[in-house]
Each structure stands twice: as C-alpha cells, then as structure tokens.
Amino acid sequence: MNDEKNQTMEIEDLTIEKYEWGNKILTVRENKIIHKKLQSDPDFASRYFSKFVGPENDNNEESKISSEEEFCEDLVWSYDAVKLLVNEYQNRLHRFNNPKIKNNRLWKEIAEVFKKQNKPYPVRAISRKFFNMKTTYYKITKNKRRIKVGRRPWPWIKAMEEILKKDNSANLTNDKITVAEKSDNNENTTTVESTVEPNKLSSNNPTDPIESTNNSSSEGNAENKDDWEMIDDTSNFSSSLGISSDHDFNSSNSQNLPKDISDYKTKMLDLKTEEVKILKLIHKDVDDDRYSKMEVVSELTTAIKEHNVILKELIDVLKERLLNK
Q1: For residue 64, what are the contacts with CB-CB under 8 A and spacing of at least 6?
Q2: 62-87: per-residue pLDDT in tens?
Q3: For 230-281, how does the pLDDT look when each residue is reduced to its tens digit (9 = 90+)?
Q4: Which of helix, strand or coil describes residue 132?
Q5: CA distance linking residue 217 with residue 307, whole number of Å
Q6: Residue 95, Cα to own-chain centre: how many angstroms?
Q7: No. of helices (H) and no. of strands (E), the chain
Q8: Of 146, 150, 231, 235, which is least surrounded by CB within 10 A?
Q9: What is the Cα–Cα distance from 148 to 126, expressed in whole angstroms?
C-alpha cells in the first residue's frame, strides 16, 4: 500500500480510498470498519483484493471495488452492539411481521441507528447477526437437557424468547408445522401436516440415551466452548440430504442394539429434527431476500459434511464389531 496515494471522501456511511496492491491502483468504496482492517491486517487485505482482482489481468491499470457488505463475518460484535440490535428489532417487531413492509427497509433503519451511535455496521452484517441469534436460540431450547450444570448461560436467551414468541415465524413440533396468523381482532392458527414421518424426528423409546458417551459430534464440541457466539455461525446443524432411509434405525430394533450403536441412532434422529428446523429458518430468510443463494449452499454443504462425519463414525463402530466377532 502507498499511503501517499490514499484519498478519502465521505459518501453517506461509506468512504472511498485508493490502495496500491501489486501493480494495480485499486479504488475501494467501503465502510470505515473494512478500511481499518485493510490498512492494519495484511492477510485480510490480501484475501479482500484477490477476491476482486483476478490473476488473468496482470497489466497496470486502475480498478474500482465497491463491496459495502463483503466480509461481514470478520466483524466483531460487542455486548452493547448486540443489545442495541435486540432492542431495535424488538421496537420494530410489529413492522417485521407486516408483509407489506420489506424487511430490507427495516434493516436499513436499524443500520442508521447504529451509525448515529458510532457503530457503522453494514446492513447485511446486522441482519445476518440477528438471523444467527435466532438459530442459536432454537439450538439452545432444543438441546437444553444437554447443557452441562454450571455452564455460563447465553445472555440473550430471555430477550430472544420475548421476541420470537411474538414473531410470525414457523414453529415446528414433532410432526406438524404451525404458522401463527395474527390480526387486530383475533388470532388464528393454521396447522399444516408435515411430510416428514414422526418416527424419523424423535425416538419412540424414552429410555434411549440423550447423548453419546463415546465419540462426540460437532454439536457436542460446540457445547464445550465458553463463548456462545462461537456457535452463532449456524455451523452446528446437520442435514440428511442425499442420505437414503437405509441409514435410519428402526426404533423397534433399538432394544437389541448395543449402547454405543443406540447412541448413534439417537444422534441421527436428533440431527434430522434439527435439520428440519434450521432449514426452515434458512428458507424463510432466503424468501425475505436477506441472504444470497450462495450462502444457503454454503450452509447446506456444512450440514452434509457434519452428517457424513456421524455416519463415518457409525460405520467404523459397526466394522469393528463385525471384525471382533
């Protein structure tokens, strides 16, 4: 970088600065947070510039980069920033539930509030953060029986509960999807039968173990982390896409299974339940134009990888038992 060539001018909440990278002069239109990282973190700058400047164009030229909301995942969220986000969303909850109002407009309003409080977070970073908090809330409420005694509770659990119980989002039970439709005078609930078989969503055997005592899944590893924000990237949910029913365990046979195999059966059933919930949330947000299709593909790829890890562990256990017979 050449500091002498850096020129700055304000454009709304963005600034324009020029950088020298390789043999190119790059004009970057970004927010102050991204500019600060570009100037202080060489690794980030290299990843950022290489994303926009292809290797096939090596001749000297001046390029313009405008990416207001790239690299949102690198932003650090303070306690005060998250508290502000929760409060501002709660203040606009009735408008978020209004189908006539575009969500993007409301996120821009919240971003303006952040800007006035000297927190220039991009719009997309703000909406993504709240989506991740919703996902974390559903994970915690689903797995509350697994949370170890003495663990530091997630600080936003009560606030998110207050918000989501008034939110017109889909709420999933074992075999039904219920959608609340609110009006000024009454409150109706429409029930839609799910195509997912109930026995694939929850175990019919109440004595089945809740958590494996042998190999731990990615979800178990996440629970050992002290910082709940570490699991806000929704990377812990798992998907059964592409997996045939041959991998499922029939609950009627669970009594004949060894304990470790039965543990895997419970794990797989839990993964199927979580898959339905998380994918439902993802699809809702995609319909709201909050995230790109590439982000959804990335989430699904992570889900499939995690499911494959569990399947591999199960296959290894089965192989070991067969060889030892």
Answers
A1: 26, 27, 29
A2: 454 444 444 455 567 888 889 999 99
A3: 334 333 333 333 333 334 444 444 445 555 566 666 766 776 776 666 666 6
A4: helix
A5: 9
A6: 23
A7: 10, 7
A8: 150
A9: 30
Q: Which of 164, 162, 145, 144 is nearest to 154 (CA)?
A: 144
Cα of first residue to Cα of last residue in the chain, in angstroms, is 66
DSSP conformation letters of 41-60: -HHHHHHHHHHHS-TT--SS
Distances (CA, A) of 16 to 5, 9, 43, 271: 12, 6, 21, 46
- Report if pTM > 0.70: no
Residue 119 to residue 81: CA distance in whole angstroms:
8
Q: Are 284 and 138 in contact (CB under 8 A)?
A: no
Sheet strands (E) in the chain: 9-11, 14-21, 24-30, 62-66, 170-172, 176-182, 187-193
DSSP summary character for residue 210: S
Nearest residue to 230 (alpha-carbon basis) of 135, 110, 142, 145: 135
Q: What span, in angstroms and rounded, lies between the C-alpha atoms of 66 and 219?
A: 37
H/E stretch holding 316 reads: helix 293-323
In the three-class reduction of DSSP (H, G, I as helix; E, B as strand; rest coil), residue 67 is classed as coil
DSSP helix/strand/coil, 100 = coil
